[in-house]
Known about the structure:
This protein is an alpha+beta fold. It has helices spanning about 5-15, 60-70, 145-155, 165-170, and strands spanning about 20-25, 30, 45-50, 55, 100, 115-120, 195, 200, 230-240, 270-275, 290-295, 305, 310. Strand 7 and strand 8 form a beta hairpin. Mean pLDDT is about 90; it is low at about 1-15.
Amino acid sequence: MINCAAFAATIDSRQSNCPQEMVLIPEGSFKIGSDNSGFVEERSAENVTVTSFCIDKYELTNAQFAEFVQATGYVTVAERPLSKEEFPNLPDEQRSPGSLVFQIAKPGESFLSWWHWTTGANWRHPFGPDSAMHAAKENHPVVHIAYEDAIAYAKWAGKSLPTEAQWEYAARGGLYNTTYTWGNQYSEKKANTWQGIFPFFNTTGDGYLGTAPVGSFPPNGYGLYDMAGNVWELTLDWFALGHDSKAHSMNPTGPKQSFDLNKPAEIALHVIKGGSYLCAPNYCSRFRPAARESQAPDTGTTHIGFRLVKNLK
């Protein structure tokens, strides 16, 4: 368990090094990954050390991303038409900007049929051109963010995406060998996840069908919100099976190249962490610190966002 007194002393002495709305994570070592989840890609590594760093208290919101776009004129990947150079075999009518949108599935539909490429879907219009990101959603996490978009925002903000080791260490909140960010017992009241039978119906037992405003659920031991559920979060690391290369290392940055057994044709995949509002106990169950998935850098969805870190010298 976390030593609260020691952590409070560390925060008092060094918190001023972190920008507003960021939290100081003290240096420490931990066991990354899990050998008990049933997912081979989570294979653990012992004695992984991260030095102190600051991390955003919340997932990045629509309001924050809008400020960036207003200041820079940035256009996200989902708002750009597909180029003929990258997709030479696509007809012109299929080059329109868009992104992947989740829709509740009907019984009998094929696996992953709940994802629909939707023309006009982007961070401003999360479910397509007829849906607008209105004022009530300003404090929700921004979605339809591709890796390139997150990197652009990070550069503008003077921060960076976290490594997977930084993200997972922070998500654990000072707890050791627990399944969730809060302990070992799943609770629909601890994070924005899917209740019911995915992907057919959601009872909204946690109060939300889609994303929730950031900070709607209790923080972890480090005072970080939504490190489980709500939206998946991008990291710097390439995706590969397990963590073997990270054992007994300091500030590991992951493998030199990516590979996912489930996506053998895709050669550029980054790690995403934390699960989302679409993760259910009967499917995915990735709302755990050790959980990880791979994501293509040129694709956004209705359930992927990010938060940033600031590394301390």
